[in-house]
TrEMBL record:
InterPro entries: LysR_HTH_N (IPR000847), LysR_subst-bd (IPR005119), WH-like_DNA-bd_sf (IPR036388), WH_DNA-bd_sf (IPR036390). GO terms for molecular function: DNA-binding transcription factor activity; transcription cis-regulatory region binding. Keywords: DNA-binding, Plasmid, Transcription, Transcription regulation. It comes from the Bacteria. This is LysR family transcriptional regulator. Belongs to the LysR transcriptional regulatory family. The keyword Nucleotide-binding does not apply. Residues 12-69 form the HTH lysR-type domain. SUPFAM superfamilies: Periplasmic binding protein-like II, Winged helix' DNA-binding domain. It comes from Candidatus Pantoea soli. Pfam families: HTH_1 (PF00126), LysR_substrate (PF03466).
Amino acid sequence: MKSKSLAQVTDFDLKLLRIFKTVSECGSFTAAESLLGITRSAISLNMSDLEKRLGMRLCQRGRAGFALTDEGREILRHSDSMMAAIENFRQQVNQMHKQLRGEFTIGIINNLVTQPRMKITHALDALRASGTEIRINISMMTAAEIERGLMDGRLHVGALPLTSPVSGLDYMQLYDEKSNLYCSSQHPLFASDAEPDDEQLLQYDAIAPSFRMTAEAIGMHQMLHCTATASDREGIAFLILTGRFIGFLPDHYAAQWVEKKLMRPVAPARLYFNSKIGIAIRSSRRANAILEKFIQSLDL
């Protein structure tokens, strides 16, 4: 057979070499049929294609039986080395995916840790399991601070209420969060069996959040006599526990005081609103395997 140079190794060449290896291990085209799932004639055509590609005869076949040529034995040896190198490359790439390394910075609004579904907690757990060389940095921030951190690149991801979207950020919903109006055990409403009507409600001091709210939440606060403000939910809880104010808190956050009979909801059938909590990421972000792993682990 006329010798020729091999310009490059293609996927088709790899397929032919795998067929050649199987035939060599089986000792005949007939024995290789069941393993390869193709007919003897198809095997013969593939072998002829490989010999033409390489420019050398690899085996003798005919009435005398199947036998490798000297060139065939050399090609088989080099083929085994190449296949082993490809498999090693595949394993190394997979290992890189399993052992991520680098910084991951997340901004989270206060008091989200009591959310019972714990998607963020589970995703952080999965992220840490992906590589001990991932350094996780958490900052507790307001929603506005989170959005600024995402835009200037200080944060990879943020968890915040989904109120009004900011251009340049992508949002994905995580939780539905219900907030009721609460009073403490020291407040006059705590021991009252009768629910206050709208006029009676205005007799009590209330807390207005200084952070952004949805239209539904704003409507609920307009029903109150707000004489104090708070920058976050913890601040609202502090003021409610004084016994002098009423205010809205997420049910999952207020539950710790409700269980101790230090708080109770006021008119829960009508004085509540629902919010959506989600994550935000920068739209024009660079490719980041750690961030992608975190998002994947949220199971959205």
